[in-house]
């Protein structure tokens, strides 16, 4: 089983920077989860492909299949609970 999270954000987005701290903590606490960060200004085609309407947005995958997304700034606990739902 593999779990991957794509985090879409932008340099100009304060909530994105706040979420970075939460993601760093999750990376330490859940090392089995793969994290990929995408800057929408650097990768506009990818943002369009994944239909990103707001930043920050997290998209969760399990075994390569897209399961759900979370748009906005969420707490450590909320994101960790969603990750545990995938296990």
CATH fold label: Glutaredoxin
Q: What is the H/E order?
A: EHEHEEH
Strand content: 25-35%
Amino- and carboxy-terminal Cα gap: 8 Å
The count of strands amounts to: 4
The assigned CATH architecture is: 3-Layer(aba) Sandwich
Morphology: globular
Task: Explain how this protein is built.
This protein has 87 residues and is α+β, with helices and mostly antiparallel strands. The chain has a single domain (3-86), classed as Glutaredoxin (3-Layer(aba) Sandwich), CATH 3.40.30.10. The chain has helices at residues 14-29, 44-49, 76-86, and strands at residues 3-9, 33-39, 57-62, 65-71. Strands 2-1-3-4 form a four-stranded mixed sheet. It is globular. The model has no long low-confidence stretch (mean pLDDT 96).
Describe the SSE topology.
Elements lengths: L2 E7 L4 H16 L3 E7 L4 H6 L7 E6 L2 E7 L4 H11 L1
Parallel strand pairs: 1-2
Antiparallel strand pairs: 1-3, 3-4
Short description:
This protein has 87 residues and is an alpha+beta fold. It has 3 helices and 4 strands, in the order βαβαββα.
């Amino acid at each position: 089983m593999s779990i991957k999270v794509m985090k879409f954000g932008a340099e100009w987005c304060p909530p994105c920077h706040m979420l970075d701290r939460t993601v760093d903590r999750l990376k330490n606490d859940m090392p089995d989860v793969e994290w990929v960060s995408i800057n929408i200004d650097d990768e506009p085609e990818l943002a369009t492909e994944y239909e990103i309407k707001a930043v920050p947005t997290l998209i969760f995958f399990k075994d390569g299949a897209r399961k759900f997304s979370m748009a906005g700034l969420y707490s450590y606990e909320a994101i960790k609970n969603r990750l545990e739902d995938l296990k």
